[in-house]
Amino acid sequence: MKLPPALRHREFRLFAIGYLPSETGEYIHFVVQNWLVWELTQSAFYLGLIGFFEFAPRFVFGPIGGVIADRMDRLKLLVWSRALNLLQTLVFALLVFSGAIQFWHIVVLVIFMAIVSSVSTAAQQALVVSLVPQEAVVSALALHSATHNLTKIIGPSIGGILLTLIGAGHCLLIQSLTILWMLGTLYRMRLPASSMPGVGGEWLKDIGEGVSYLRQNRRVLATVLTTYSNGFFGISYSQFLPYFAQEVLHVGATGYGFLVSAPGVGAVAISFLLSTYTKLRRMRRLLFGASLIYAASIFLFAISRSMVWSILLLAVVGSMQMSYRVLARAIIQEECPPHLLGRAMSLFFLDRGFGSLGAVCLGSVAALVPVPFAVAGSAVLSGLTAWLIPRRAARQRPSAS
Q1: Closest Cα partner for 236 from 55, 358, 111?
Q2: What single DSSP character describes residue 190?
Q3: Domains, in order of start, for the chain
Q4: Helix, strand, coil content of the chain in percent (nearest 5)
Q5: Which residues contact 315 (CB under 8 A, 6 or more apart)?
Q6: 283 backbone dihedrals φ, ψ, rounded to 5°
Q7: S-S: 185 plus which of 12, 18, 250, 287, CB 3.0-4.6 Å?
Q8: pLDDT for the residue numbered 371
């Protein structure tokens, strides 16, 4: 059997070998963290507050992280971020084992790790594409996304079982071992000197340079704005899956688990398919097409009253979300000069922050109208913006290539 193009390169294989268990450990951590918040507070509001603290720092520290990723050795930056992740996990475990854990402890730990992740995310994404030659970039991004979504399926399942069998503290110790494994694989990696960034200057000026590049390159700007729109109007549906399970489909907690898993299954399937390609033509058209199908699938899910159709539609939602994000990253990598790549990636990853804002807005609307109507309306807006953005960009073509 022929290996996907990205896996034919040693450094990418090492990264993937470390990333799979490490990211699985992150989702085990997620299960433990939310379970402890619930045990300590018995409040859904505080669960939502923790989610806000996980994403809000991206708006402040994401662009700064892009500048750091363009100034520092990205491999070393990733090593430092994983080391800080290990420290946070060990402190968390110590508080759990001592019985001293309180809600405010979790808030501080979450904010700390959210800041670290905001800074390191751009470096990780820029590093992934530097591990392979240009012709294998789409394959690398797709495999990286497939691995991430695979851990999103298996990590919570393992975390729930382990939480029952061995308790929260020991789950966190297992996560610590997965981080150490990742650090070991990063230590073995060797990157060519040409992949090392080397910019300097004033921080605000560097951030402004990244924003200015996006404004000047309409192709990249249209790509990034589409991901923001998809995040703000589209991804918010996931916050209301418990409502659909209980009030619309009447399938209870078990059915809710299937609804949550369905997008991940679709994302993994499409990611492995994309990983077999060395090069995709007309990536911008594919991206905007995936965005339209994404919006249409959310709309159909909102009006569905069949559990089978709802699961199938959510699988399509997950596959299209993964497709447009992989394609967007590939377009940015192809268009962006190396010394600006970290900053461009950091601006791209603000789409997750827009998703958290969209959830707040959609929740406010859902307080006034039935939830399915609110989700369907949001999907329509997502589709309209996905239709309009590339047409506006086409009318304002840049002189740059």
Answers
A1: 358
A2: -
A3: 1-198 (1.20.1250.20), 206-396 (1.20.1250.20)
A4: 85, 0, 15
A5: 262, 263, 265, 266, 269
A6: -65, -35
A7: 18
A8: 82
| DSSP SS3 for 130 | helix
- Contact of 66 with 341, CB cutoff 8 Å: no
Cα–Cα separations (whole angstroms), residue 281 to 135, 184, 278, 367, 395:
12, 37, 10, 44, 21
Token representation of residue 136: 């294998």
User: pLDDT of 189-248, one tens digit each?
Assistant: 876 554 555 555 555 566 666 667 666 767 777 888 888 888 888 877 776 776 788 788
Residue 268 CB contacts under 8 Å (≥ 6 apart), including other chains: 146, 149, 150, 153
H or E segment and range at residue 281 = none
350's tokens: 């603000």
Q: Which residues contact 193 (CB under 8 A, 6 or more apart)?
A: none
CA atoms within 13 A on the CB side of 26: 21
